[in-house]
Amino acid sequence: MKKYIITSVFIFSCCISAGQELSNKLPFGFYLGIRTEYLSLGKAFDGESFFYTDEASMFVPQIEPGIAFGTQFGLTFKQGSWDMGYYFSSNRFSHSIGSSGTLHIHNIKLLGLTFYLNKPGRIRPYIVTDASMPWFRITDGATGVGSYSGQTGKSYFSGVVLGAGAGIELGIAKKISFRAEAMPEWFILSNVKGITKEYWDVKKFSCLKLAASAGLFMGLSH
Q: What angle do CA 40, 60, 136 make, to 5 degrees?
């Protein structure tokens, strides 16, 4: 957990330096900030089933709700913004075979769009969309089969998240604002990996992800 926090702080510092330089030259603004998120994944992660490949079996964990932390940055326009970021969370997991522990869900926000619903002011409601790429791994989550029998190793899960929600932005200083938002999203698992380095495609595995977040953001003049 500590190394992920240090990484986020480093990214945040780099964004401040780069953003101040860019915002003075481009015809749009730049913002950056820190954000926390409460997230919960649906029942597809049931803590009972397995994925099977030619190389390994990987258990599907039951994942408890968790708190994510990270950085968010993007481009600002008069009526909205283009949002990007990186977040990670710590979640407890368990499975009926007796395995349990903590996993870290990493998430790269690739394309978030915010659309304000009113003119510039101290309070601005908005709608927001999200397209992200999450992944996580479980130590000893994979058991070898066939020629790999007797081996255990990490299991990897990666996917795509698509969602839309709403929020409100409150200006608390000239260039500093507070945002709070809620977003239902669809988590689509696309690949799994275990024992070897080969990724295997996953079909028809998806679930609802519920997220509520809050953050502080700083705008940079241009």
A: 60
Q: Considering only 15-24, 78-87, 98-107, 117-126, which range has the smallest mean pLDDT?
A: 15-24
pLDDT in tens, 165-203: 999 999 999 889 999 999 999 999 999 999 998 999 998
**Considering only the top CATH level, what class is 2-220?**
mainly beta
**Segment (H or E) for 128:** strand 123-144
For the chain, the structural domain boundaries read 2-220
Query: Taking the CA of residue 165 as centre, how many other CA atoms within 13 Å lie in the half-sphere pointing to its CB?
Result: 20
Query: Which secondary structure element, helix H or strand E, spans residue 141, and what is its range?
Result: strand 123-144
Closest CA to 185 of 204, 202, 163: 163
Closest CA to 36 of 134, 92, 107, 101: 107
Judged against a pLDDT cut of 60, whether residue 160 lies above it is answered with yes
Sign of the CA dihedral running 12, 135, 132, 211: negative
The verdict on pTM exceeding 0.85 is: no
Q: What is the pLDDT of residue 14?
A: 56
Distance CA 152, CA 190 (A): 22
The answer to whether 40 and 67 have CB atoms below 8 angstroms apart is no
